[in-house]
Amino acid sequence: MPYETDFTNQGFTKVGTRVNRPDGVDKVTGRAKYGADANAAGQLVGRVLRSPHAHALITKIDTSKAEKLPGVKAVLTSKDFPDLTGGNRGLMDILENCMARGRALYDGHAVAAVAAIDADTADKALKLIKVTYKLLPHVTDVDEAMKPSAPIIHDWVRTAGVTPAPTAASNVAQRSEFGHGDVEAGFEQADVIIEKSFKTEQTHQGYIEPHACLATLGPDGSGELWVTTQGHFTFRNVCASLLGLDVAKLKVTSSEIGGGFGGKTHVWTEPVALQLSRKANRPVKLVMSRDEVFRATGPTSSTSVDVKIGAKRNGKITAATAELRYQSGAFPGMWAMFGAMTSFACYDLKNVKSVGFDVLVNRPKVAAYRAPSAPMAAFAVESVVDMLAAELGMDAVDFRIKNAAKKGTKASYGPVYGPIGIGPTLDAVKNHPHMKRKLGKNQGRGVACGFWFNFGGQTCTDLNIGVDGSVNLTVGTVDVGGSRASLALIAAEELGIDYDQVRVTIGDTNSLGHNDTTEGSRGTFSSGMATIFAARNAVEVLRQRAAATWDIPVEQVVWEAGEARAKGKQNNNLPPLSLKEIAAKSPRTGGPIAGHNEVVADGAGVSFASHMCDVEVDPETGATKILRYTVVQDAGKAIHPDYVEGQFQGGAVQGIGWALNEEYIYGDDGRLQNAGFLDYRIPVCSDLPFIDTQILEIPNPNHPYGVRGVGETSIVPPLAAIGNAVSNAVGVRMTHVPMSPPRILKAIEDGQA
């Protein structure tokens, strides 16, 4: 629903300021409660037994000794999870991922669980459970899994998106195709064509807080779940469906979240904790170890991508194609589809085609990670774009500007763009002081663009005004990146009051109607929209109360700068009434003053960013040092600039780790070899320069304030920007992420050979 808003003349007084974060004191003093901080009287300790094999039949599970151990109150296997999904394939996959049903599908797959009076007893009980396995052939590489000789993960999978529909089982769960025009004709028009293949390895979101929950489920089917999550309403719905509960009887409360980045959008252990509680008739607390987080929760896809782009001598791209193979772990996903949709979204192309293949392997179920699938596609596409610019003798930024998408461009994945920011971000990069920095020996500079869709979705918000004039805003979108401060600013802006008068609370699932998960950069966009409308509802009530106080028609009352004013010469003798004054009288003028809104927040507004990076590569060791990094991104409207810059920087830092260090390493036995932060190396401060940022504001016409989500786009360009920089530094094209020292040295050696 477009808004006829004059974005150039909104006159914000609160929005756009850099206020203190409301959760800051609690977090630095330790008062904030995270997933593992909740406790209940009589609680038990939950533990999960996990498969040590990549693929194996479970021929027998003997739990008898564990059940007899003093202090053990419940033991679960798949027999304790009847299939109540009604044939819903997505729910069936979640159920099987929570507890293996006849087969272990990856190293770390849950096969049993216990609840005991303490951790030592629970650990002893796990050791007493005897599981008999029959090993099966496994496959962990995406390209190997597509070969006819590969072991089949699920015999019920038939490749979707293929005509005619296949009759044989396959590890290719889905084929997705996007594009328009005639790519063959486009390549015939090209003077230069570059074609290249790329690989990216699997990475984890790297959140510091592991998954944790406290579950209570009684014999009557009533339960409570305290959990670290990005979407407690979604968790409620999934757990209720899997366990046969009434949704209204399961109350879910979200804790503070110690990082999520998409990895806490999926249900992993929560149904297990609830079922343990139901069986033991006592609360159960279940906290994952770091090893479990790596082995059994959702990382990204590893990928294999082929890109082909052709252009004329004048620099205009005539055709582009991509084939993208994404592994989704042991269960079907939609990750290759997202990769195919985002791959060429930054460019205005007449002839374009992207084909994605979603592939099953014996690895954990893949989950979202901040603009899921887009960074891998961008690495391949933006690398070839750089190669093509060099072949044409054009500046890499100028080549991108010449081909950048703009308002009216038909996107490679279908829609026609409205006002967008890819061109302005590239112009800003071209004119940035960073671009003028001189490079030294063994140094290189890289530039890359990135795109993400953004998402709105279902949102429900309450705003209540206290008799002292303070405001409590209750929202259902989990705060993963500072949204409470942004939403308080929006409420203060609409009501015309101070930011400090507004308190934002994340309501539990019994407090509000359904709210979709905080993902897709939807938090500030969707809850911001609902907050605006809820505040405007409250303003209408405030106007009515003022009109009643003055005994004049409500049409003669306006709300300006936080107070009701009577308009018209006949009302000149009526002094303004502040929100605080009206609120103080509310018990005598009609009762509580509140505003409410529920909305499906469509029109989230696509997001674009351009990054530039300078690196220095040691030719003897292959070690790469990031010298300087700059992010330019369109925020639509930066509600809280500090948080916006923080999102830009955070995405870039995670992308730097992905580009240079981070990867899952599987052995020939299909087992993960580096399930911990000692061996899976995320960037630390000494690895990083200050990440410079520049916020652009090209308003989103589908939001009253012009907001676009900003949380995801800035993880998209880093792989390619760093890849281009390293390639320019060493004189050899890097095609495999992460670009670790051994890979860089090998590329240099291969190039010299």
Description of the structure:
28% of the residues lie in helices and 23% in strands. The protein has 753 residues and is an alpha+beta fold. The chain folds into three domains: 7-32 and 456-600, 2-Layer Sandwich (Aldehyde Oxidoreductase, domain 4), CATH 3.30.365.10; 35-136 and 210-257 and 264-296, Aldehyde Oxidoreductase, domain 3, CATH 3.90.1170.50; 303-454 and 605-752, Aldehyde Oxidoreductase, domain 4 (2-Layer Sandwich). The strands form six sheets. It has a seven-stranded mixed sheet with strand order 3-5-1-12-9-10-11, with helices on both faces. The chain has a six-stranded mixed sheet with strand order 7-15-14-13-8-27, with helices on both faces. A four-stranded mixed sheet has the order 16-24-25-26, sandwiched between helices. α12 runs antiparallel to α13, α14 (483-495) packs parallel to α15 and α18 (641-660) packs across α19. The protein is globular.
User: How would you write the strand order of the largest sheet?
Assistant: 3-5-1-12-9-10-11
Query: How many domain regions?
Result: 3
Number of H/I helices: 20
Low-pLDDT stretches are none
Q: What assembly state would you assign to the polypeptide chains in this entry?
A: single chain
Shape type: globular
Biggest beta sheet attributes: 7 strands, mixed
Proportion in helices: 25-40%
Question: What is the name of the CATH superfamily of the largest domain?
Answer: Aldehyde oxidase/xanthine dehydrogenase, molybdopterin binding domain
Q: How big is the Rg?
A: 27 Å
Percent range for β-strand residues: 15-25%
Content-based structural category: alpha+beta
At the first level of CATH, what is the class of the largest domain?
Answer: Alpha Beta
Compute the average pLDDT.
97
CATH fold description of the largest domain: Aldehyde Oxidoreductase, domain 4
Overall CATH architecture of the largest domain = 2-Layer Sandwich
Total beta strand runs: 27
